[in-house]
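quick q for whoever's on today - can somebody do inverse folding on this one?? i tried earlier but teh output was garbage lol. tokens:
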């Protein structure tokens, strides 16, 4: 495939002396220009230059632009599937599904801004005769905040990357975007950037509204979040990387919000009646969810908590049987496979942990499932078990009774999701868990598995720290637009000075 191999900065394809090579799972590698701090400044200055005109576009103009990007992405679906599966090792069907999700998100935001409710407009009419004091005319409208930095995620080369949910919601809000492409899929990022650029040209939008900077070392991302003209950051990735960038945002002369989605172990609480009635079925279902996409989902259900006893054995045996047959799967990067095997060793070495499924590593960029079992008492004592291991790794926690299950729930850090597997007779137990889980989690499910995040109005993909760095926000669904807006109150302003919406 012919690729440009350059950065897209405000409508211009720009090369650089330093280059880096892609590292595909299969197929040929390609060379790409590597990002620099100077290029970051150029892209951000262009984004600021675009802000006055772009932030004053109407919702209709932005909706037309978002729909045009979606169309341009859809017509590149074949190229995206080809390069995307080469770069990431993900199957063609997954890449095509993710392309549809990406264009679908853009169209969803187009429809959302046209309906206007996202502006949350409020109007307190003037009361000139009010005693003892008259009231002014007050209007509140949500306004775009300025240029946004977006970091492409390794595990969603399309839906959480160049024109993924962060970019779509920022553009919908009226904010220009500078994307730092993820080094795992630069060719995929480039084709999406070509699509965005085509939509910019066809819609007559200011070219500074979108830039893509590829590669470069960590100082490129650091310069981006520290640039004084950047007003917020969207990020999905590791706890370590996200926390480092979050701290930089907080230390700026003008601190800015860092919307980081950092990780989660997504506990499943298997309640007694459900375990007795459906233990084997739920065990097989859990194994399938754990292995999906080589476990490279932030919503991977890494822990199942249940009361010890024969029903727990039934669950465990079914899960182990399914996981022992789990295929060797290619990971998105060699680094992710390395981190997975380090995490597996950390869990295996924890006191009181039994290994139920553990395979040997045969290739540098492949993983197989790993499953461990421990007791509630050990879980509560151990620091090693409660951290995300990115990949198909599961821990079964057998607690002594409901009280210990509640203690395990209370001990959790913030989560993207918590799941209840329950039957009718489990309702009192579920009710006792709910007040705890609501404080821990962005989304609570019953009788399902958390992998597969619906893109919709009610979805919350976020949660208390460390699931995310901002528990009031979601990175999936229409509410994601709120991250890039802020309320402005207009007091007694003549209508010609009010913003166009
Ligand atoms: P990552 O290492 O956090 O990298 C994400 C992005 O942030 C990359 O563009 C990276 O730049 C940049 N970055 C990271 N640390 C930085 C720093 N200190 N300063 C400036 N920029 C920084 O995540 P990843 O590459 O996607 O995957 C690595 C691990 O992250 C996985 O093994 C997994 O544990 C975790 N992960 C979790 C989720 C989730 O949803 N929970 C999703 C993906 C990954 P470079 O490209 O230069 O490295």
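ok took a stab at it. sequence:
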């Amino acid at each position: 495939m012919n690729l440009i191999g350059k950065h897209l900065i405000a409508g211009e394809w720009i090369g650089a002396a330093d280059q880096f090579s892609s590292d595909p799972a299969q197929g040929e590698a390609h060379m790409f220009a590597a990002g620099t701090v100077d290029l970051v400044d150029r892209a951000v200055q262009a984004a600021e230059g675009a802000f006055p005109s772009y932030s004053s576009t109407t919702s209709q103009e932005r909706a037309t632009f978002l729909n045009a990007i979606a169309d341009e992405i859809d017509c590149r679906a074949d190229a995206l599937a080809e390069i995307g599966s080469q770069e990431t090792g993900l199957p063609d069907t997954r890449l095509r599904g993710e392309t549809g999700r990406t264009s679908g998100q853009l169209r969803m935001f187009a429809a959302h801004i046209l309906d206007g409710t996202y502006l949350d407009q409020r109007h307190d009419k003037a009361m000139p005769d009010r005693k003892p004091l008259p009231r002014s005319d007050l209007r509140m409208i949500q306004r775009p905040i300025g240029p946004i930095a977006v970091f492409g995620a390794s595990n969603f080369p399309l839906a959480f990357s160049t024109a993924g949910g962060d970019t779509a919601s920022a553009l919908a809000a009226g904010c220009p975007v500078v994307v730092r492409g993820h080094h795992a899929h630069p060719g995929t990022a480039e084709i999406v950037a070509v699509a965005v650029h085509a939509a910019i040209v066809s819609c007559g939008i200011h070219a500074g509204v979108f830039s893509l900077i590829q590669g470069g070392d960590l100082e490129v991302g650091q310069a981006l979040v520290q640039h004084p003209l950047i007003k917020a950051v969207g990020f999905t990735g590791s706890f370590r990387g996200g926390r480092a960038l979050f701290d930089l945002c907080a230390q700026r002369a003008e601190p800015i919000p860092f919307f980081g989605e950092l990780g989660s172990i997504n506990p499943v609480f298997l309640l007694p009646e459900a375990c007795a009635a459906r233990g084997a079925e739920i065990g097989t279902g859990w194994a399938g969810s754990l292995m999906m996409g080589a476990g490279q989902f932030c919503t991977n259900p890494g822990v199942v908590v249940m009361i010890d006893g024969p029903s727990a054995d039934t669950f465990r045996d079914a899960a182990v049987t399914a996981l022992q047959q789990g295929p060797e799967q290619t990971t998105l990067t060699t680094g992710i496979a390395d981190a997975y095997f380090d995490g597996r060793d950390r869990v295996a070495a924890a006191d009181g942990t039994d290994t139920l499924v553990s395979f040997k590593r045969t290739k540098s960029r492949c993983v197989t499932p790993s499953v461990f079992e421990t007791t509630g008492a050990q879980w509560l004592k151990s620091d090693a078990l409660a951290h995300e291991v990115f990949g198909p790794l599961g821990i079964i926690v057998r607690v002594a009774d409901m009280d210990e299950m509640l203690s395990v729930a209370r001990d959790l850090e913030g989560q993207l999701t918590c799941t209840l597997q329950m039957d009718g007779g489990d309702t009192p137990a579920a009710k006792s868990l709910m007040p705890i889980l609501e404080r821990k989690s962005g989304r609570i499910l019953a009788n399902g598995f958390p992998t597969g995040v619906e893109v919709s109005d009610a979805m919350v993909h976020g949660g208390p720290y460390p699931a995310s760095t901002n528990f009031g926000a979601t990175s999936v669904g229409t509410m994601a637009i709120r991250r890039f807006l802020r309320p402005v109150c207009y007091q007694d302003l003549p209508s010609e000075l009010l913003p166009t919406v």
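fwiw The longest strand covers residues 138-144. also The two ends are 42 Å apart (CA to CA). so keep that in mind when u check it
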